[in-house]
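Hey, quick one: can you model this chain's 3D structure?
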Amino acid sequence: MREMLRASLMAVILLAALLPVAAPGQQAAVFEVDFKNEGVTPSNWKITLNSDGSGQFDSWGGHAQPQDSNLITAGEVHRPIQLGREFTDHVFEIAKKRKLFAFPCESHMKVAFQGSKRFSYSGPEGSGSCEFNYSKDKEIQGLGDSMMALETTVQYGARLEKLLQHDRLGLDHEMENLATAAHDGNAVELGVIHDTLARIASDEQVLERARRKARLLMAQPD
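Sure thing. Here's the predicted structure for all 222 residues.
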């Protein structure tokens, strides 16, 4: 028994040694994006992301369009998220390459309004923020597109959960839309909604076609 306890203690010590530890007094790195567009639903959403991939998603505001009045909508969404290592590292690499967003990033070009996106970064290197509708900086604009695709994924997950509760037949069409969005790059990081897809895939009351789509999406690399 004593040997087992000693072995368990050593395992805990080894695991603790492998975990990243911030230096005393060092500020943790955090990225945030705030989106606003009164012409869409949701009209406001915010993603807070830590450097380990953990984060929080919140959305609110907006009104369903007349053509969508009979559809099940996600409503307000407030939930923790966990993003993949590659996606997370890319976000923080861009923040460091692009001066922690501490520069004007709006192009002021006459382009259609796509929504106001405010990037903010705070960390041991410093802090900064910038706001834009469209940026001529390809990395800034690309990161904005990625954040909007991530928001799309989370919103799909929230709608799928409601359909799973109230309209299982509606899952088939929604799963088809999600598959198309993922294929086109308009929905990313499907691991964020892995648990929801797993529930659909294992629910025998769901059409096999929708269950099959869920299994295929779960198998896709992020």
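One thing worth noting: Residues 4-22 have pLDDT under 50 and may be disordered.
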